[in-house]
């Protein structure tokens, strides 16, 4: 049985939006620090966000 997500879907979507809105170097770090989430976790959310899968380059 898969483990439940630690963070609600809305929280993850908000983090992805925040990174996209900043659109600057260090955005992942700033958002992850503000939300208290590991930077690699936020990077994973951004990479796997629906907009990233539509052929657009993922944020890094």
Automatic annotation (TrEMBL):
Organism placement in taxonomy: Bacteria, Bacillati, Actinomycetota, Candidatus Aquicultoria, Candidatus Aquicultorales
Pfam annotation, one family: HTH_Tnp_1
GO biological process entries: DNA transposition
Name listed for the protein in its UniProt record: IS3 family transposase
Single annotated GO MF: transposase activity
């Amino acid at each position: 049985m898969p483990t439940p997500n630690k963070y609600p879907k809305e929280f993850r979507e908000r983090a992805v939006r925040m990174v996209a809105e900043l659109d600057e170097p260090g955005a992942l770090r700033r958002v992850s620090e503000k939300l208290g989430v590991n930077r690699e976790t936020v990077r994973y959310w951004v990479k796997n966000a629906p907009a990233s899968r539509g052929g657009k380059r993922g944020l890094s």
